[in-house]
Amino acid sequence: MTDTTQIIAGLTSLVDPGRVLTDADSLKHYGCDWTKKYEIKPLAIVLPKTVEQVQAIVRFANEHKLGLVPSGGRTGLSAAAVATNDEVVVAFDLMNKVLDFNPTDRTARCQAGVVTEQLQQFAEDKGLYYPVDFASAGSSQLGGNISTNAGGIKVIRYGMTRDWVAGLKVVTGKGDVLDLNADLIKNATGYDFRHLFIGAEGTLGFIVEATMKLARAPKNLTVMVLGVPEFRAIMQVLNAFQSKIDLTAFEFFSEKAVQLVTAHHNVPRPFDTATPYYALLEFEAVSDSVMDEAMALFEACVENGWASDGVISQSESQAAALWRLREGISETLAPFIPYKNDISVVVSKVPDFLEDIDAIVGSQYPDFEIVWFGHIGDGNLHLNILKPQSLAKEEFFKRCETVNTQVFETVQKYNGSVSAEHGVGLTKKPYLHYTRSAAEIAYMKAVKQAFDPNNVMNPGKVFDL
Amino acid sequence: MKVLVAVKRVVDANVKVRVAADNRGVDLTNVKMAMNPFCEIAVEEAVRLKEKGVATEILVVAVGPKEAQEQIRTALALGADRGILVEAADAQPLAIAKILKAIVDQEKPGLVITGKQSIDGDNNQVGQMLAALTGMGQGTFASEVNVADGKVKVTREIDGGLQTVELKLPALVSTDLRLNEPRYASLPNIMKAKKKPLDIKAPADFGVDVAPRVKTVKVEAPAARKAGIKVKTVEELVAKLKNEAKVIQ
Q1: For residue A400, what are the contacts with CB-CB under 8 A and spacing of at least 6?
Q2: How far is CA A408 from CA A337, A411, A428, in A?
Q3: A281, A241 in Cβ contact below 8 A?
Q4: ipTM of predicted complex
Q5: What is the Cα–Cα distance from A381 to A310, expressed in whole angstroms?
Q6: What CATH class does A4-93 carry?
């Protein structure tokens, strides 16, 4: 590699004055995501403002064989946006404008650094709705959302980020600028590279602009929380409601999660009687008939023994308070330093899968406490194991490594995914083969080779070449 | 003891309200409506009194549009026993107080609980007017309510502290934010509430003229804040503070 000072000087000539940072605080801030468990070691941080500047950075990296790591809102949970190996971090914070709005197509053309909540707010101001939503929406950026195909809490109704990308502008690893799909709905002209860049975690190139689709705004979103006596009944509740009502969300969490959230936040219990599991349903109560239908479904669930009690929001503030029972979980668990996994199987296999994992942890790690929650309507489970007070952090993590293998073997048995919506990055790289076959991974590498022959784009993430 | 609770249907507290195009009020088309949060606290307090065995019956009254039945049903689901809706859209505080007085005369409750104010008009008048019209003692802005021996002890949130008053029953209490945390309406109770009695009345049934006494001249949104600017030098900042903002000499 060329001398560091020369590299920095070279980068400085490519972007606006003061947009190359090398101080220790900046390196630490821009060099890592939420994982916080790797040693952060970027060479420099560069903040481009235009597509041309991004292109110049990528060409420069090819010339000097520099690794580039993209950085958005840095809320990732898989260490995909983490620089550990003298890479140059390309942070998109300054490319944060909504460039264009088209009311007929119902699309908004955004720079990669637009924050999710910014697009949500923009859509709301236009009387529309950007439906991809999750706890980190206030910080996460569209470029990162697209690069990990972010999901969140409304997937059951609105799908993943992938479903809302109408077109992309990317700078490939070779330094070419490509316009992918030109925002067309119908475009049967061969490979749709847009979908290759979605979920690629910056390994093929950088997303610099995205045209996002917007939906009509939902009406009178109403939240129900039901007490469910056993896990299998959650699926029965899901089936019953989905056959009659278009749910906008279906989440579940355990009594342990409710206890922790209500103890740490100013959130009331949904109802006094404790039940092993809870289902949170959200739907648009657009008319009395929808409400009557929902009531009748609840009655049927009670008669069948699938639900024992339940509440329904009477106002938006109550709906928000009920959501906090679910959305407060991650934050509440953080001080317990939980072992986390974000896994998925097809919806119909969720109960068997969950039982298997419970059995493994229960028999081999009886001192471990599991907190289950997740977007069960789409087969996505968040497995959290709390560190027992008596166990040291290092010892706990060491034992969790062996849990990992067993969990992922179970995922493989059910043809599930070792990363449902958090991505692969560094954390799931060793486990990719549990979900992807060797042949598939070989094709993935060949695709990378085509777009990024010098391996400058987020090297060492997802797989090793 | 019978407890009468007054509730009001208002724009949901979470809704960002917009001024109507004619500047005569707030645009209510397709806006989520809900029970006034202070009324929710009033209902919760009544239900707790019933659970303690202090109250024997809870009567919930709303003066409002036909749709205010929804808010009465919510109160019934939370534990009230029966409801009365007096259909009168846009009734002003004095008219509401007069209607409530007529109902108090008929029903003779031992305690009346209202919210301290509704979040739409922010008038903070109905409770006080009703107390005056009926001659009941009033304990407003309550953060604690204790009923015993024909009296109610009310802790009031006042500027700089708390004040405790003791009132002879029947009395009126208006609720402040910290009195209690209202529960959710449970689904089984919502279904049961459908069978509870709800009478629909008109202001004329009580001989009350609801014609408005207060005229709204104009409703305007607050002026938008001007965007800030960046200054290049300290000198420029000082000059602006001196000459434009005039905050330093």
Answers
A1: A339, A385
A2: 20, 5, 10
A3: yes
A4: 0.82
A5: 22
A6: alpha beta
pLDDT at A2: 55
The mean pLDDT of chain A is 93
**DSSP letter at B183?**
P
State how far the Cα of A24 lies from the Cα of A27, in Å rounded to an integer. 5
We report the CATH number of the domain holding residue B171 as: 3.40.50.620
Please answer yes or no on whether B184 and A312 come within 8 Å at the CB atom: yes
Q: Is the pLDDT of residue A86 over 90?
A: yes
Question: Which CATH number applies to A98-216?
Answer: 3.30.465.10
Give the bridge partners for A25, in sequence order: none
Q: Does domain A337-434 have CATH number 3.30.70.2740?
A: yes
Q: Stretch B113-134: mean pLDDT, rounded?
A: 96
| Host H or E run for residue A172 | strand A165-172
Which residues from B are below 8 Å from A when comparing CB atoms? 12-15, 30, 32, 34-35, 37, 74, 181, 183-188, 190-191
Domain A221-330 has CATH 3.20.20.70: no
Whether the predicted model's global pTM rises above the 0.90 cut: no
Contact (CB<8Å) B185/A268: no
Contact between residue A465 and residue A448 where contact means Cβ atoms under 8 Å apart: yes
The residue-averaged pLDDT of B137-142 equals 97
Residue A1 has pLDDT above 70, yes or no: no
Q: Chain B contact for A224, CB < 8 A?
A: yes
